[in-house]
């Protein structure tokens, strides 16, 4: 509103007037006469439109500037827009009952016992309880862990040791092999007689096996057990399909369980290089499969492994038990196990077969075996099946075991700390026959392993044992009948006992 003078002590109004006069004078169009310019300068000096209110306070010029300022402010206020309040309708008043209902949803009632609105918080007439009343029952859900037992799972859930002992006595014969990890335990604990005593078990329900459910209840203070049989279909599961870029992914995509596919690959790998199985080959898997009427399933061992190759020999392998030992047999009834133990002890070879300087005797002589360095007391295994021909002290061999394997072959194990076999005993591949020691002519704990052919020692590393079993007679007929039964299974075969209740067994092509 006021402009500071930039020309010494001249007033802002005079400066404006002079500037206006000079501008008019410099305008090239219509030059005003000199008398008019003089009169304009005189008028601007006489009248100050915008005086400085900070100077000559109280003078006529000052009051004229004040009036001008007030007029301008009044004009701005008069021309300003109005701000009127927006009218709103008042809310309906709540009645007493409605107010109580709304109040029950506020935070305030939480301090008064979370009343519902119909019944408000307690008054001073209410006396607090000395102790909180107990629940009449507690319902719990627990699970048996991977390395857990039924007793530990129950104790962890709060079941008393006395009730756990009673449960073991009632169901011990049904869960002798242990409860499957992940089994759910539905537990109900009842009211206890006093606070210093554990709650009694009122009810326990769990799945003891795929085909058996157990339910224990307390009646008259005594626990009793109810066994609930569950129907199970044990029809083997057959999966067939064509190999794509990966036999594992193809079998999994067809619905084969991971356990069955892994076992199938191990069996096939013993007959053919897995890298040579190409696209277009057909696989055939039969595995033990149990399905309960409740829908639960249990995948068992692999029973049959087949591979039809587009180029090359097809493979048919059947799992069969002969003389108490389960092996894989070809369709012709010939079983063959390759890759038996290459080392009879878990250790490293320190001395080979041949001439060497004896560490104790001090001269060079024939070393008729292979030495394996191992820790004292490490178990020594039979490299293949046979009969123990000798077990005892044997000169420089110390504690020594010799096993006849047939066909003129025999193995010897020397310097044992302890012998775990007896003469005449039949042993099997991988069976422990003794423990590493340093008896006889030995400078430290190790195993001296020898191989004999027709009574003469040979290099043990030059022979790789292969054990072959041959089925014949009635056993071969039973074997072929079982093979035909597995190969005759229909892919996607239905459950035999409850098709409507269970639906089809999962399978694939």
UniProtKB/TrEMBL annotation:
Keyword Hydrolase: yes
InterPro entries in the record: Cell_wall_metabolism_enzyme, Dup_hybrid_motif, M23ase_b-sheet_dom
Cofactor(s) of this protein: Zn(2+)
Keyword field: Hydrolase, Metal-binding, Metalloprotease, Protease, Zinc
Any one GO MF annotation of this record: metalloendopeptidase activity
Domain M23ase beta-sheet core positions: 365-460
Keyword Membrane: no
A Pfam family hit: Peptidase_M23
Record GO biological process: proteolysis
CDD domains for the chain: M23_peptidase
Protein name, as recorded: M23ase beta-sheet core domain-containing protein
């Amino acid at each position: 509103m006021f402009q500071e003078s930039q020309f010494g002590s001249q007033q802002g109004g005079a400066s404006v007037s002079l500037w206006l006069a000079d501008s008019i004078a410099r305008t090239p169009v219509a030059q005003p006469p000199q008398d008019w310019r003089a009169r304009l300068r005189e008028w601007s000096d006489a009248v100050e439109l915008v005086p400085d209110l900070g100077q000559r306070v109280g003078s006529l010029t000052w009051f004229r500037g004040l009036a001008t300022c007030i007029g301008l402010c009044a004009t701005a206020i008069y021309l300003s827009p109005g701000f009127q309040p927006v009218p709103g309708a008042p809310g309906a008043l709540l009645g007493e009952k409605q107010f109580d209902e709304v109040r029950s949803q506020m935070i305030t009632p939480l301090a008064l016992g979370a009343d519902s609105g119909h019944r408000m918080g307690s008054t001073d007439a209410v006396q607090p309880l000395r102790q909180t009343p107990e629940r009449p029952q507690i319902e719990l859900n627990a699970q048996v862990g991977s390395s857990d037992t039924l007793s530990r799972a129950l104790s962890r859930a709060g079941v008393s040791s006395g009730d756990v002992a009673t449960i073991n006595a009632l169901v011990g014969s049904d869960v002798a092999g242990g409860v499957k990890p992940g089994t759910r335990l539905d537990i109900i604990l009842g009211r206890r007689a006093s606070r210093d005593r554990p709650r009694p078990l009122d009810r326990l329900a769990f799945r003891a096996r795929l085909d058996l459910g157990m339910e224990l209840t307390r009646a008259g203070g005594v626990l009793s057990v109810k066994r609930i049989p569950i129907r199970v279909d044990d029809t083997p599961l057959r999966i067939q399909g064509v190999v794509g870029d990966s036999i594992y992914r193809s079998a999994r995509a067809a619905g084969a369980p991971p356990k069955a596919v892994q076992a199938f690959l191990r069996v096939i790998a013993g007959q053919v290089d897995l890298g040579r199985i190409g696209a277009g080959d057909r696989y055939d898997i039969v595995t033990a499969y149990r399905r309960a009427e409740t829908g639960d399933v249990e995948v068992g061992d692999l029973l049959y492994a087949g591979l039809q190759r587009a180029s090359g020999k097809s493979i048919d392998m059947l799992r069969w038990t002969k003389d108490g030992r389960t092996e894989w047999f070809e369709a012709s009834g010939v079983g063959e196990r390759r890759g038996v133990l290459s080392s009879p002890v878990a250790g490293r070879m320190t001395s080979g077969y041949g001439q060497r300087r004896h560490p104790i005797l001090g001269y060079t002589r024939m070393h008729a075996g292979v030495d394996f360095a191992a820790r004292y007391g490490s178990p020594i295994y039979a490299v293949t099946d046979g009969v123990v021909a000798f077990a005892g002290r044997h000169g420089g061999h110390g504690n020594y075991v010799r096993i006849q394997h047939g066909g003129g072959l025999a193995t010897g194990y020397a310097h044992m700390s302890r012998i775990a076999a007896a003469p005449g005993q039949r042993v099997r591949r991988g069976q422990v026959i003794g423990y590493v020691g340093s008896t006889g002519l030995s400078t430290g704990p190790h195993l001296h392993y020898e191989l004999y052919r027709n009574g003469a020692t040979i290099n043990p590393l030059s022979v790789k044992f292969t054990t072959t079993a041959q089925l014949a007679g009635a056993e071969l007929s039973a074997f072929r009948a079982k093979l035909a039964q597995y190969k005759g299974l229909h892919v996607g075969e239905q459950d035999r006992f409850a098709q409507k209740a269970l639906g089809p067994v999962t399978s694939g092509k």
